[in-house]
Amino acid sequence: MTTGRARRITIAAGDDVDEFLFDQGLTDGLPVVPPTPERVERMLAETRRDPLEEMAVLPPNLAPLTVEKVAINAVMAGCKPEYFPTVLAGVEAIADERFGLHGVGATTMGGSPVLIVNGPVRERIGVNCAQNALGQGHRANATIGRAVRLVVRNVAGHRPGGTERATIGWPGKYTMCFGEWEERAPTWRPLHVERGFDPGDSVITAVTQSGGPSQMIDESSRSAKALAGSIGLKVRGQQHPRKPSWGEVVVVVSPEHYDTLAADGWSKDDLRRRIQEVGRRPLRDLLESDQLGGFPRLWLDQFPAFLPPLPIHDADGAIRPDAMDVLIPKFADDAMINIVVAGGGAGKFTSIFDPLAGMGSVSKKIEEPV
């Protein structure tokens, strides 16, 4: 039996264990599974890693994160033991410095990871990629995402009203995990392959988002260009329709929409380019005014990636006329648009999550089962 260091708590026979865990602030507002030593041992049996291995130090608590602590939170989230390697990789992704965990939790925009699973592990542990992929009813999806969120709460210390300062929040603060239906989109490269992994690798990708998903309905477009234009219009409104996006976006394309795009030979990159084409607007149409909000003039010099390689202001401080007419993209780089296929076989819908300003994404390989 594996020996851990986690503190063991004994409660009185007459106490309610569920209420005790609520009282200790260890839940996300929903009941959790009591992390008994036997349950934690079964979780740890699914990895070759030492339970005492320190994986990271998580802000803002600057608490050492061990494999054992991840296992405890995976039990509490309701995970099956076979989910544990995927949970570990998901936690490694959000613990990576490139993910920016402290900023994700502290921002008033309400950041939280959207977890996308690729590769053989999807079928092995039952990650839903198809009907209702972003919804309820699938244990792997619900509990893997929840386990990562409980680590963020119970180890890192992100708690609403404390260091977690979301103004409104969104359901992704509980959980958001799903799989890309790679087999349903055979002409498109899966997300993990786009990121340099082998097709047979199992990978989890964490992308910081601040809300959504928001559904785009297009049941009439028959060409790839028209449909991609509709998707581009929807994406253009993310964060604010008159501001460039400062974070990555996740676009979840339904199988029927994929069929329309693929019938014209379009790739994910073609869709990205069309989204950018539709999203471009002259600088004059993006600037805030007395009538409409938009891109603040004071910010112009802070975002060179979006702006033309020419002086923005004249000698008097006014915006130059030739700068006013330059087309500004929604995203500084096409790579900021993450595209996956998921969802049921019927329904011409695409869903888009809201990006979080300034945050990136991280992919981690999932270890093979023991």
How do the helices and strands line up, and which of them pair or pack?
Layout: H1 17-23, H2 37-44, E1 54-58, E2 63-66, H3 67-77, H4 84-95, H5 101-106, E3 112-118, H6 121-125, H7 139-156, E4 177-179, H8 191-194, E5 203-217, H9 224-236, E6 249-253, H10 255-263, H11 268-279, E7 281-282, H12 283-286, H13 321-324, E8 327-328, E9 337-341, E10 349-355, E11 361-365
Parallel strand pairs: 3-4, 6-9
Antiparallel strand pairs: 1-2, 3-5, 5-10, 5-11, 6-10, 7-8
Structural commentary:
The chain is an alpha+beta fold. It folds into 2 domains: 17-279 and 331-365, no CATH class; 281-328, no CATH class. The chain is built from 13 helices and 11 strands. The strands form 3 sheets. Strands 3, 4, 5, 6, 9, 10 and 11 form a 7-stranded mixed sheet that branches. A hairpin with a 4-residue loop joins β1 and β2 (63-66). The model has no long low-confidence stretch (mean pLDDT 92).
Give the total of beta strands.
11
Low-pLDDT runs: none
Mean pLDDT: 92
Overall tally of domains: 2
Q: What amount of the residues lies in strands?
A: 15-25%
Distance between the termini: 16 Å
From the spread of the alpha carbons, the general shape counts as: globular
Please give the largest β-sheet: 7 strands, mixed
Structural class: alpha+beta
List the secondary-structure elements in sequence, H or E: HHEEHHHEHHEHEHEHHEHHEEEE
**Helix content estimate:** 25-40%
Helical segment count: 13
Rg over alpha carbons: 22 Å
